[in-house]
Amino acid sequence: MIGNRNPNSRRTAVSALAAVVALGMALMPTLSASAETAGSNWWYAKYDVAGAQAAGWTGAGIKVAVIDGQINSSLPVFQGANLKIYPTSFCNNITPADTTTANRGSVHGSDVTALLVGNGTGTGSVAGIAPKAIVSFYADGNSDGTLNGCSTTQIDGLTYTSFGRAILKAIGDGNRIISMSQAGSASPSGDTHAVAQAVAKGIVLVVGQPNTVAEAAQRFPADANGVVGTNAFDDQGNLQVHDGKTTAYSTTTVVAAGDRFPTQASAGNVWGDNGNSVTGSSLATPLMAGMLALTLQKYPTATGNQLIQSLILNTSAKDHPLSFDTAGYGYGPASLSHLLRVDPTQYPDTNPLLSKPNGLGVPTEAEFAAAAKGASPTPSASPSTAAAAAAPSPGKASGSILPGLLTGIIVVVVLLLMLAGLALVLMRSLRRKAVASTPASVRPDGTVSDANGPVTGEQGH
Questions:
Q1: Domain segments of the chain: what residues?
Q2: Is the pTM here over 0.85, yes or no?
Q3: How far is residue 354's CA from residue 312's CA, in Å, rounded to a whole number?
């Protein structure tokens, strides 16, 4: 989530009415308006992005999803980018996904997406870390950047927010990496299921953690099992600070740059640069996703699980034993050069974050196992169509052997009946041949008799 030196948290709570689950989604605080903290793209040189791109690693061909409030794709920074906007907001269609209006939702979504595919022009001259990646943007909030007014949806008995439905759509569209700079204090059953689906399919979920100690309860989905929870540090390597307090969590997976970056709009929500800067895990999240996109481009056979293995094993610039810092750095600062240097396919194809110490405990092992057996319902599916979508896909084992056994028995019975019919036809044919070749005699009653008995209907003359 984006923060600043004087954050004003943006929160929402959906009232618990009947099937509606109480939620607390804090998407972002306001942007800093202080000229003395003018934004800088210092991260670009720190990660030697120019060197990586000169070597050909630009994220080309890699599908990355960004889930956020809104976006303004007409900004100069996005011209020429392979940026696709899913046209309908998952927040009840109450606001457009793509808008030229500067508001909290559209500024936040534009800022985080620019860090992925920005072309280096326009406000802040932001050049993306993965400029050739195929980025799909899914809007899930309204103009104030929260989920206020966004209803929940019941699918197959599970409760989804617009956030969870956006994840399902990103999965269905074939994205390999999902970047989410949002957090909430609740973990609805459907949203948890969506996370389980993504992890089971080997999609890497990179999620920003809360920016302030006051927001520490907003842990979902960053602290969910299987998810890469990300925090931000400054140009000196120190964790982000708000209101004089260092933001640190024992559940952080990795940390990345995210302090005093340029923004696409002023504090008054007007497009353009007047010396503003932004800070927060919202910025570290797309940079992390971009690093993984470049790594996947270089090692295209790597699975999502192997990418996560490499991410936590190859933090910092130099090789080192695996270690975890509970004071806030997790497995350490992500390193683009280290990720590109090491082939991730050498690592096990298992997600190393399936049971996070001090995490939320969801999704559970059983939920992951269930997700691995079938497809998830689509965001717009009715219970009946969703149930059909959950059927095992071709080549995957079903949850029961009974249907297959019955089918096999029926096939065997049909084959036996066909063989019996063929045998009967052959026997009759043989009998007729025998009649034609066996000497016959005339009985006293005038019927013709052979070795098989009387042959009626014919007169022997």
A1: 2-389, 402-459
A2: no
A3: 14
